[in-house]
Amino acid sequence: MGDVRRSNTALVLGAVAKAPAGVHPSRAQLATATGLTKRPVSSLVLDLLDAGLLREAGQSQQGRGRPGVGLELNPARGVLGMEINVDYIAAGLVDLSGNLLVHEVREQDNRSAGTGPVLAALAGLAGTVRAAAGEHGVEVLGGGLAVPGLVDPAAARILTAPNLGWANVTLEPGAVLPGAPLGVSLFNEANAAALAEVRHRPKEGSDFLFVSGEVGVGGGLVIGSELFTGPEGHAGEVGHVVVEPDGTGCSCGGTGCLETVAGQDAILAAAGIAADTRTRSASMALLVQALQAGEPAALAAVNRAGRYLGVALASTMRVVNIGSVVLGGHFAVLDPWLRAPLLASLGRYAPGRFSPEQVTLSVVGESGALLGAAGSVVRSLIDAPHLLQS
Amino acid sequence: MGDVRRSNTALVLGAVAKAPAGVHPSRAQLATATGLTKRPVSSLVLDLLDAGLLREAGQSQQGRGRPGVGLELNPARGVLGMEINVDYIAAGLVDLSGNLLVHEVREQDNRSAGTGPVLAALAGLAGTVRAAAGEHGVEVLGGGLAVPGLVDPAAARILTAPNLGWANVTLEPGAVLPGAPLGVSLFNEANAAALAEVRHRPKEGSDFLFVSGEVGVGGGLVIGSELFTGPEGHAGEVGHVVVEPDGTGCSCGGTGCLETVAGQDAILAAAGIAADTRTRSASMALLVQALQAGEPAALAAVNRAGRYLGVALASTMRVVNIGSVVLGGHFAVLDPWLRAPLLASLGRYAPGRFSPEQVTLSVVGESGALLGAAGSVVRSLIDAPHLLQS
DNA sequence: TGCATATAGTTTAGGCAATGAACTAATTGC
DNA sequence: GCAATTAGTTCATTGCCTAAACTATATGCA
Fold first, then answer.
1. pLDDT per residue over A19-65, tens digit each?
2. Residue A331's closest CA among A299, A309, A356?
3. Nearest to A234 among B219, B308, B321 (CB)
């Protein structure tokens, strides 16, 4: 297939994907939407039907004239979203429209287990979800896996995941999803979650910085609805912006990084709450209780985190010219106490650049990484449908 | 002309532009370079010759066989690079290969004069250079104008140039270069200078942050040899990264920005050297003398600037994932004294991420902004030659 | 009920711009 | 001086588009 037809195929498929949920555009509507004429649209739609990416879905019409045949993304095709985190693994089935159909979480300590057993457990969970997909009549085309660390997607390699204690782990082809035509793609967790935010907040501006509070502080930079990854693929690491030159040492080897005052461990320590890997979620619950009870140490810890988060965001804003922030992870949970010091700090360090309504909370929550990883695989398929047509 | 042919035209012209200086590729060589066959290359070359963008230039051959006809960018076409700065205006003629053929600088205080007289003076200087171009047999196709401030290129408007005291100045079409087919495009000075660095350091990596020390501190972010401008076009403003949360107030309204410790005024003040707009370049010379004499106050001021510059670069590096820095403006001048504290600071705040050879000095120097503005206009013409053919 | 109008989708003709192979032109090397 | 080699052109073919005509199927009003 020639380049021209290939890109027009993506154009037509993208136009179907862009239609709001429940709206099934006809071939004629696709022609006007894409700027192509009806002739090639009909022929491209035929290809996409053959490839199983589109499906005819009743009528699309309202007014006079012959009714059109509605077209939709084939609901019988899907992608697995997967996640490996410090204390759980998860897998979910996402259809081509981005709907989460099946979701399985298995809690386990992945820090002490080796990489092999964890990947085997993930493959098992993925197999379970894939079987469930089969019962729904959904064929799984590929998968996206989010991990809390730096990845090299091209090499399917996890470069380093400090909180898992992993480094240079390569994902063998077919190990997780044997036989899936698109294989499994790797993503950084915060980046994937940022992409999920894009998908799930339609009109809400397509330029923002997603900041995710986890054990560390992750970030994803979305510009023009696309992830900005920088030359080596690791942009958006706002957790290591220097916010206090005379601050304490960071796990990255640096000094005074945002993570040293706004990561979970830092906040818990400052609040005087003990935490280790296995009890961290319990500790975070204790922190919220302490905040609700108005305990001064807890309030001061969150206050400090908010203030320094503002410093980091103000700096980031000037470097990449982004005016919106989405808070995720524990930053979303702590928002009631974090928000005031954060906004005050933004007002001090970047006056006139952030209005309060530009600091919003994550809408996808916990499953964001999984949704985003799967959604990104879907998106790349819609942008390049020939990957499947061969 | 169809889209396909249009993009292939750019492909062929780009292949000629990519050839090293003095090498004149033949049609057959262009065919292999572009992946097209000889037939369309011949026909596209014909179009480009007609448009005056290419010229036949003797033979291209070495080995056996029929010699090819060499092709080069037409040296009889050029673009004006222009600059308005605090204490001078400048204009230069740049040919399509990026060579600076004519260069005129006129010193004048643009801060006290109004925008109208300054623009009129610039138009006069541009006219002079254009006349000189005519004597060289070079036709001026358009121009690029660099200013020290934020610009909206689409609207040909200078949004704000604090050091000039300008805000919302619109460049009327034809005011500076009447009749030039491409008109005049606006650029931020540091961004333009960054682009000039790209052009003039061939193999030296195409991802870097250009940091320019001026009255303020400007920056340009180059990723994949392209300027990264962010969603609103103002990315790279590293001068307003917060390096000291408890620092002093900045002209931007913020607190503790890099500019408050590393801008010219800040360094001069810390070194105990008086400065105003008219004597600033003299003051900088005094500073260098003081440094050479080993005066403690001067050394401490530059030391502090270097240390905080390192903080800002370490943070920027994590946000945009850039591992190379090019120092321009007074940072290049002060390099002998600035370098050690800068490297030490980078080692402390971003350990293992910057090696000393990744901190380099500007190769284009003073005329960088002018060269970059003109070069960018040339580049956009080469990427879209139909702008001229129509 | 029936016909004008409107819209969907297919068919046919035509055009642009590519590829591939054959052909002509100009040079080197033995 | 002729074979080998490379440059550039010509011609036939192909891919894929647009434009317009045509067929199919609906609505709305007399």
1. 998 899 999 999 999 999 999 999 999 999 999 999 998 887 667 88
2. A309
3. B321
